[in-house]
């Protein structure tokens, strides 16, 4: 089980790193890449877990590999926290607090939207 999560985590972290390299944040700049990564990951988590619990009886290693490993490695609380700290240290307290709140709100909405979208797709396939 640990190996499955670890392999998934490596894949997710590599994907996140590639996006961050392609969309770097300038010193003191707003961390758009991390925000988008976390929100997108939350949407996928919402959809994935909805499909797993409501429509698909997957192999027992799928959830730890993809849910915990890939998506856990892709989304990032640590980078989010460091980004907030960097904005604060750059004297951009309003941006830091906005980022802090916007990420939380957008992530929650993304999980809900991902789950809702999955339910729409599941509903269409079962009719």
TrEMBL record:
Regulation of protein activity: Na(+) is not transported, but it plays an essential structural role and its presence is essential for fluoride channel function.
Localization per record: Cell membrane
Keyword Membrane: yes
GO molecular function: fluoride channel activity; metal ion binding
GO cellular component, one term: plasma membrane
Chief localisation class: membrane
GO biological process: cellular detoxification of fluoride
Membrane-related topology note: Multi-pass membrane protein
The reaction(s) this protein catalyses: fluoride(in) = fluoride(out)
Protein residues bound to Na(+): 72, 75
Residue stretches spanning the membrane: 30-52, 64-82, 94-122
Keyword Glycosyltransferase: no
Keywords from the named record: Cell membrane, Ion channel, Ion transport, Membrane, Metal-binding, Sodium, Transmembrane, Transmembrane helix, Transport
Family per similarity comment: Belongs to the fluoride channel Fluc/FEX (TC 1.A.43) family.
NCBIfam families: crcB
Function noted in UniProt: Fluoride-specific ion channel. Important for reducing fluoride concentration in the cell, thus reducing its toxicity.
Descriptive protein name: Fluoride-specific ion channel FluC
Organism: Kitasatospora griseola (Streptomyces griseolosporeus)
């Amino acid at each position: 089980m640990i190996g499955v999560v670890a392999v998934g985590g490596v894949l997710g972290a590599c994907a996140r790193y590639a996006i961050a390299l392609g969309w770097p944040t300038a010193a003191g700049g707003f961390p758009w890449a991390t925000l988008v990564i976390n929100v997108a990951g939350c949407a996928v988590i919402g959809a994935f877990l909805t499909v797993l619990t409501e429509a698909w009886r997957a192999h027992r290693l799928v959830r730890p590999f993809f849910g915990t490993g890939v998506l856990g490695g892709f989304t990032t609380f640590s980078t989010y926290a460091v980004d907030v700290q960097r904005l604060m240290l750059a004297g951009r307290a309003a941006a830091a607090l906005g980022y802090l709140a916007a990420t939380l709100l957008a992530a929650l909405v993304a999980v809900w939207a991902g789950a809702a979208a999955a339910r729409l797709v599941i509903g269409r396939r079962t009719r």
